[in-house]
Amino acid sequence: MKHIKFLLSVLLLMFVNTLVSQNKDIQEEAAYYFDVKDYKKAYELYDKLYTQVPKNFEYKFRLGYSALHYPEKKARAIEIFEDIKRTDKSPVADYYLAKSYHLNYRFDDAIVSYEAFLAAKASKSSKEDLEFIDDAKLGIENCKNGKDLIARKIIADIKNIGFPINTDEVEGVPVISADESVMIFTYVGKKSTGGLLDDFLKPDQQEGSYHEDIFISTRSSDSSWNAPVGIASLNTNANDAAVALSPDGQTLFSFVSDVKNPGDLYFSSLSGNDWSKPEKLNSNVNSEFWEGSCSITSDGRHLFFASERPGGFGGRDLYISEKVNGEWGPAVNLGPTINTQYNEDAPFIHPDGITLFFSSEGHKSIGGYDIMYSIKKDNNWIEPLSMGIPLNTTEDDRYYVINAKGDVGYFSSNRGGTGGKGQQDIYMVTPGILGEKPILALLKGSVFVNDKPSEAKIEIVKKGDDKIIGPYYANSKSGKYLMAISPGSGYVVKISVEGMEHIEEEIDVEKLQKFIEIKKDFYLYTPGFESKKSQISVKTILDSLMDTTTNPESFKNDAKQEDVAVAKPSKDPVTPIQTPTLSPCNSTSTPDFSEVKGKSLNDEVVYRKFLEIGGSMCAERLVFKIQIAAYKHPENYKYNHLKQFGAPEIINYPDGITRFTQLSFSTLNEAEKARQKIIAKGQKDAWITAFIDGKRYTLEELILVNFVGKAIN
């Protein structure tokens, strides 16, 4: 029996020694992740240690602290620090219990604990306590703000944008073009350039970490995001993070840091599909202090950025720099209306030029950074407003951007319990802005030279003062351009291509009362080419649009008014084909559409003129239908809200897009009345299309042939 007892004691001692040895390894690993602020892994390891040794105060405290900084587990922080408070009556326990209540929206309980901490420190405090005292005072203000905002909770739809953008790794800081056709973001994970690297950017598979890379995604025709890819020309083994994109998507700003440089702001330009090598912004923007976020106005003249340079109102302040003669001028602090004694970061200036979003630890923050916005009125910024709850949380909410229309916003967050895919994800929120939406015209399209996409310089001249806005540039590969125009004036758009005479187009948005998107393609021709083009009939052009060999990319995205597309002429001789001869429904002569020919019907002024000219026109074999949707994946579209208008006609066209239409009318005026009823039921992007003998044409195509009144050969 003694031998058995001895053997059992030996085995028990071996088990304890093994457990101690294992715990020592776990303890070292947990301490490492705790020190590098990877609180998710630290939480998991300290949870194991605490389970095995529940009386170890260090394990318990570090587990609670990790829970505070791990959104998925922040609720457990209350349990841990309440338990600590039962035996530990120190002010420190009050402070962390207050933080636990605060993060979990128990604002009244948090205020009580914050005040208990401050009361204890009022009679006895050290220099080391000052930071905690200031934070506790701020925490009380945050909680009061939180109580107020909960009482006025905003109705907003917040969604994780999901796969393929978000993964189980880190995705954040989304930046978008004004029309949402492009999203660029910062990624950290297994696809990072160089893999696991140490602090000197050398491979280290054991203790190395992944560094930031810049990824890009584009919209598909059904509005879903395509699989993102890294931008090779911008990514290095060091940290490369996207921070801002010009509204036209042609200039990208990034934050670059490496072993020798703690970080500065750079910019790159898009030429065709290729991004140029990043260039550092000048010393008026970059200083010896931190600058890590920025945003540029749609005209490219002003840069808003965050900096920790001295002389401001708080730690990080927002500044503005104006471009003069191609160089960024001296930085000017945005002043005490925007900047507080706390940190402000992540500015985003809307394409309207007067709506500024940013993140702040001051103002009406409920904890950490919250998203605020201010509007410029009479050349002054109004008092910033909080975007409210649920967009803002008790954690950090930053890097907010919205589209030009103002109905959709994007931001990155590590918030828990909202469908997160990884450590940090990108989210979408609707509406993008509270209250009144931005008022502006978004002018977009492509520039063609001899029917081929071309690079071009685009300038906008404001009537009255002849002020030139821009220049903007059309992409050299796609010919695409994008510009935002503010209301209150008429403008002349000037298109210039090297070696050719420029062309001009008037845009009148003086009395614009809401957001409008105007699609306009510009065509420039050499004299010889234009004479060749005139031999091609419009019927041939229309046929080419529906040919099964047509590139699907030549078709517009769904939910947008479709512009006329002009097919490239064949190298082979073309025999003109006459348009069908249709008998008029009445004796009136075919009206003259030259006044609106070639102009975008997205322009409300043009569209009203178009209805005035041809609203009562009709012809046998010609009908007008209301197109309510167009998708590559039609199963995504639900039309229950429109069932009162009858079952839609659903046709899958050769370009791979399935189009939904409802009702049928002989005249445009009849169709327009029905379209307004459909819009009133929530289908805001409904528009009219024409059908001749069952074949679909856009209204712009009909205009080209004077409503089939005659063929153009």
The termini sit apart by 113 Å
The gross shape turns out to be: elongated
- Which percent bin holds the helix content? 10-25%
- The tally of helices reads 12
Let me know the number of strands. 37
Would you mind describing this structure in some detail?
With 713 residues, this protein is α+β, with helices and mostly antiparallel strands. It folds into 4 domains: 20-151, Serine Threonine Protein Phosphatase 5, Tetratricopeptide repeat (Alpha Horseshoe); 157-430, TolB, C-terminal domain (Neuraminidase); 439-534, Immunoglobulin-like, CATH 2.60.40.10; 546-713, Sporulation related repeat (Alpha-Beta Plaits, 2-Layer Sandwich). It contains 12 helices and 37 strands. The strands form 8 sheets. Strands 6, 7, 8, 9 and 10 form a 5-stranded antiparallel beta sheet that branches. Strand 7 (251-257) and strand 8 form a beta hairpin. The termini are far apart. 40% of the residues are buried.
